[in-house]
Design goal:
Layout lengths: L2 H16 L14 E2 H11 L5 H10 L5 E4 L2 E4 L14 E2 L3 E7 L3 H7 L9 E3 L3 H8 L5 E8 H6 L5 E3 L2 E4 L7 E3 L5 E2 L18 E2 L2
Antiparallel strand pairs: 1-3, 2-3, 4-12, 5-7, 6-9, 7-10, 7-11, 8-9
Helix pairs in contact: 1-3
């Protein structure tokens, strides 16, 4: 991905996922901001940024981080503040995966998965992808396997968000360690190049 596009994607994430007030943006309950105001915020930083630059990030990004609806733009996931996604719960595949620090495994298997600095827990479709997303310098990652079908049947809500799956909390009874799922940061390229491993669309429960 070109450095300019990476920079725009990171700036959009800061604006729409974490600190809209810092850029003078008004975000509604669903996370949407006015696209023209977002463009002005970009151009306050760098006058060469264009609307086409923003649209390229939105429409060409593999991770589908953002969406534009009727001249409004939002991050589709990854918020550190509460929003209403406007999504119905969906039926998940049998298993989903979460990359974690290996030092946290015992605690998570006991307490369950809950958001840390985000509004939702982000889950992957593939164990290998989760392992890659878990890797950080100087530590070994691990992978938690979620019995998603059983959790769904027990009332845990999962939300289809394109390349990733969101949920609020998964009790420890639905979690297990994925054996052989660890990976270190030396084994991977930059996280920008890792997809979430999307395999299929969910069927929505209406």
């Amino acid at each position: 991905m070109a450095p300019r596009i990476v920079h725009i994607s990171k700036l959009l994430s800061l604006m729409l996922r974490h600190r809209p007030d810092e850029f003078g943006l008004q975000v509604d309950r669903y996370g949407f901001a006015d696209l023209d105001e977002v463009l002005r915020a970009f151009q306050d930083r760098n006058s060469t940024f264009t609307l086409e630059d923003i649209k390229k990030v939105v429409y060409d990004g593999e991770k589908q981080r953002f969406e534009i609806v009727e001249n409004r733009i939002r991050a589709r996931y990854g918020h550190s503040f509460s929003i209403d996604l406007g999504l119905d719960p969906s039926e998940p595949p049998e298993f989903l995966y979460k990359g974690v620090d290996s030092a946290d495994v015992d605690r998570l298997l006991s307490e369950g998965l809950a958001p840390d600095d985000r509004d939702y827990v982000h889950l992957s479709f593939d164990a290998e992808v989760a392992a890659r997303l878990s890797a950080r310098p100087g530590r070994r990652g691990a992978v938690i396997r979620i019995a998603a079908t059983r959790a769904h049947q027990a009332g845990v809500h999962f939300y289809d968000c394109g390349p990733t799956v969101l949920t609020k909390h998964i009790p420890g009874e639905f979690l297990d360690i994925e054996r052989g799922g660890g990976i270190t940061s030396q084994n991977i390229s930059q996280e920008e190049n890792v997809s979430y491993g999307r395999r299929r669309r969910f069927s929505s429960r209406r």
